[in-house]
Each structure stands twice: as structure tokens, then as C-alpha cells.
Amino acid sequence: MRFLLSIASLAAIAAAFPFVAEQEGIKNSHIVRRQQSGGYQPGGPETCPFNPNHEYPVPVSDEFQYNGAKGGLPGRGQGGYLVPDPEDPDHQFIAPTDQDIRGPCPGLNAAANHGFIARDGISNYSELVDAVQNVYNVGYDLANFLALVSIVVADGDVLTTKVSIGCDATTRTANPLSIHGSEPGLDGHNKFEGDVSLTRDDYFLGKGDNFNFNGTLFGMMAETTNGTFDFNGLAEYRYNRYVQSRQENSEMFFGPLGLFQYGAASFVYELMPSGSDNYVPTMENTKSFFGAKQESDGTWTQIPEQIPANWTNRVTPYSLIDVSVQIGEMYGKHPVGFGGNVNGAFVGLDFPPFIEGGNITAAKPSDYACLLYQLISGPIPSSLNVLVTPTIEALQFVLTMIGGSSFTNLGCAIPVTK
Ligand code: HEM
Ligand SMILES: *[C@@H]1O[C@H](CO)[C@@H](O)[C@H](O)[C@H]1NC(C)=O
Ligand SMILES: *[C@@H]1O[C@H](CO)[C@@H](O)[C@H](O)[C@H]1NC(C)=O
Ligand SMILES: *[C@@H]1O[C@H](CO)[C@@H](O)[C@H](O)[C@H]1NC(C)=O
Ligand SMILES: *[C@@H]1O[C@H](CO)[C@@H](O)[C@H](O)[C@H]1NC(C)=O
Ligand SMILES: *[C@@H]1O[C@H](CO)[C@@H](O)[C@H](O)[C@H]1NC(C)=O
């Protein structure tokens, strides 16, 4: 086994969360036990919307080209155009119905509300890779990585490549012949979704609702950033949120995947701003993407996420190394411990070689990129109460889909799978 929690933290974790003990420690690498909200709980299959009419999104065409991304392949890598094209009949805003699934990601919710991904919220690998290139000009390497994480890090299905952008829709995402267990979708906690989000409650504090917009948190983000939503403001807000969770949430867990939260925060000032505002993040824009609406008493409520009017996407692709730079800088501004609260005390964890005793040793942007890679390419100590260890099929899928170059070019070690 390459990536082990330290023995001390593993013992503390196993004692606090018997679920771990049931798993023969982390050695049980072929069993995927996924934490999920089952049954009628928030995010669970019984309350998950069901749309009998799954319609694929209309792909880009010669007339409405966007980034030219189709079929899960790289597009032109050239942005700076209006999204949606005002003449394009298939990608205008339509509010979701109660049969449509939405989840913790404002970027994907907005893309679904504009029909760049299926409006019912059941998506798949190539759809996601195409959509984030065409809408946001996410670089192909990062688009590929995000889509792989969403499918492989236990939220979706590697055979069908399908994933729900919100609650558990296993009946529609799984291959009936290959069901190993449930596929919680992006709502699944401590998979891709984690504690210390910008505008979503921690799983424990929200009593299982870790995916709905929380207007109080949006208001705090707006206030802390002075309405600017820039790097400095978000670095500060992320730090405040960490402190808040660590104090308030007795089950707070902030593992290596916590770094994704910094990546998502960078999307607010790197992907959401519009050319019509000289690419400076604004309140108008940000609130439209988050679906935040301010009431007359100053509080924030939610309306469906929408791409703002006259929105012009970023010009150059936002690549894997770009996001790694932002993650490193934002985390580096206020370094915090990795680990979780166990019996009232914070226990640091190890994720060698980049996290030791809860402290990060990653220094260069490429270290952050390799750390991200390590998260999807080997057994993952994903949480204090569940250990996500991808199956051999999943690891094979990653190695095939990652195409070799984007991470090896950065000097990341390629793990050997047995
Ligand atoms: C395939 C691509 C993507 C996937 C699979 C994905 C998935 C996710 C997930 C699972 C979360 C929840 C993390 C958490 O809060 O615990 C999230 C958050 C977020 N995503 Fe995405 N995302 C993708 C692309 C994008 C894009 C293109 C944008 C840009 C607009 C975006 C913006 C955000 C933001 C701002 C958050 C933080 C929300 C909050 O904490 O309140 N995402 N994403
Ligand atoms: C994924 O979705 C696209 C449409 O967005 C569709 O053309 C493709 O067949 C789907 N792939 C799978 C494996 O279901
Ligand atoms: C929203 O977040 C605030 C601040 O963390 C919290 O006090 C409140 O309970 C949350 N509201 C809901 C509805 O979860
Ligand atoms: C917000 O404005 C206040 C008062 O001008 C200032 O002290 C604070 O540093 C600003 N915060 C950020 C993140 O810029
Ligand atoms: C729309 O954005 C373009 C630049 O992308 C700008 O020149 C134009 O003035 C904007 N129009 C409106 C109505 O805001
Ligand atoms: C990180 O390192 C510091 C010493 O520099 C130590 O006090 C701390 O306990 C370590 N772990 C965490 C989780 O912060």
C-alpha cells in the first residue's frame, strides 16, 4: 500500500468511527464503501428527483461553435466569446423543474440550466469535459481531471461514465450488470464534496444537507471579500470558514481533497468574471452564477443559477497548472492543518509525500498538481469515516483517460497498480 494514514491517526479514527474498523483498515483496497445519505435522507435516492425524459444536451455546431469541444475531446482552447450565443436556441436559460437534479456545484448547475449538460442533471464523462470547455474555457487537462474525479472518486460509474450532478440517482447512472453499491452523485460527502465549502453547509452541521445553497454563507462571503470576490478576499473567507468548521463541527474533516475547495474558490475569480467587466469579478456576476438573490431585508435566498446577460468567457484556457498555482497561493496565504476532529481534538493526517502530520510539504505548483493526481490514481484515505479505495477498474479507467502526458509532464510519479 502506498498511501497510508499514519498508524496513530488511523487508530484514533477507527476508534471514533467504527465504520473504519469494519473495513480491515485501509488494506481492503478492493472494497468500495461509499458514505452516502441513504433512503429518504437529504441527497438520498428516495428523495432524488426523477425525470423519465432524459434528453442529451445539443452539442456544439458549425453555427454555434463555442470552444468546438465535442465527444470528450480537446476543443480549440480559445475563449473570449459570448455564452450563450444570443441566437442559439438550445442553450438559453430554463429554470430546472422539480424533476431535475441540481447539486453543490454552481458552475455545473448553471451549465445544466443552460442545456450544456443534460437538464435533468444526469451527466457523463464526455458531456462534462465538453461543457466546461465550451462554457467556461476550462483547459482540456483540467476538464478531463475534474470529470474523472467526479466519476472515479466514488460519485459515478466507470462503466457507463455517468454521474449525477447532485443526489443519488444510481438507478440511472449505474450499469445494471455492474452495480457494486450506490453511486451518491456529487452530493456524496467526503468524495469530491467536502467540509468547509464556500456556500454549502458541512455535512454534519447541515444534517446531511451538504449541497443546498446557504444564503447566510453567501452573505458572509460577500462581506468578507467586500463584494469583490477576488483572490485576497476569498483567501480570507476560506480561512474564516476553516476556523468556523473546526470550532463548530465536531465531525469536521479536512483531508487532502480539501485542496479542491481552494480550486473551486479560484473558479469564482478565474472562470466567472466576464469580458464585459474586463474580467474583474463583480457582485452582479457572482450572484447570478450562485443563484443568490438579495431580499429587501438584506438576507440572501436562492433562485436558479444563471449565466449572466452578455457574459463573455475567459480568453485563455484555465489549465491544471493554472489551478495548481492558485491552490498553492491561496492555501499558502493561510496554511491550515489537514485532518479532522476526533473526540474534541483535531487529529492531523499523513498523505505522503505531500502531507505529514497534518502539515503540507508541497511547495511548488507542480507539487500541488501531483498531489491532486495522487488523489485519483491510488488508494485514497478519503475521510475519517470512510476510506475510498478505487477498484482496479477505476484505476485502470483513470490511467487510460488521463492520457499520460498532463501529469507526467509535471514530473508526477505514476503509481504502479497491482
Ligand atoms: C467537470 C467539472 C466540475 C465538477 C465535477 C465540479 C464539481 C464540484 C463539486 C463536487 C463541488 C462541491 C465541493 C464542495 O463544496 O464541497 C463543486 C464546487 C464548486 N464548483 Fe464545481 N465542478 C466542476 C466545474 C466547475 C466550473 C467550471 C466552475 C466554474 C464556474 C465551478 C465552480 C464551483 C464553485 C464556485 C464551487 C464552490 C461552491 C461552494 O462551495 O459554495 N465548478 N464543484
Ligand atoms: C454521454 O453523453 C453524450 C451526450 O451529451 C452522449 O452523446 C454519449 O453517448 C453519452 N455517453 C455515454 C457513454 O453514455
Ligand atoms: C447557514 O449557515 C449558517 C452559518 O454557518 C448557519 O448558522 C445556518 O444554520 C445555516 N442555515 C441552514 C439552513 O443550514
Ligand atoms: C475589506 O474592507 C475593510 C475595510 O476597508 C478592510 O479592512 C479589509 O481588509 C477588506 N478586506 C479584504 C479581503 O480586502
Ligand atoms: C457586452 O459586452 C461587450 C464586451 O464583451 C461590450 O462591448 C458591450 O458593451 C456589452 N453590452 C452590454 C449591453 O452590456
Ligand atoms: C503542523 O506543524 C506544527 C509545527 O510547525 C505543529 O504544531 C502542528 O501540530 C502540526 N499539525 C497540524 C495539524 O497543524
From TrEMBL:
Disordered: annotated span: 35-54
The keyword Acetylation appears for this protein: no
Cofactor(s) the protein needs: heme b
Signal peptide: 1-16
Listed InterPro entries: Chloroperoxidase (IPR000028), Chloroperoxidase-like_sf (IPR036851)
Taxonomic superkingdom: Eukaryota
Domain Heme haloperoxidase family profile as annotated: residue spans: 89-325
Keywords assigned by UniProt, alphabetized: Heme, Iron, Metal-binding, Oxidoreductase, Peroxidase, Signal
Pfam families cross-referenced by the UniProt entry: Peroxidase_2
Entry GO MF terms: metal ion binding; peroxidase activity
Classification via Gene3D superfamilies: Chloroperoxidase-like
Protein family membership: Belongs to the chloroperoxidase family.
Identification of the protein by name: Heme haloperoxidase family profile domain-containing protein
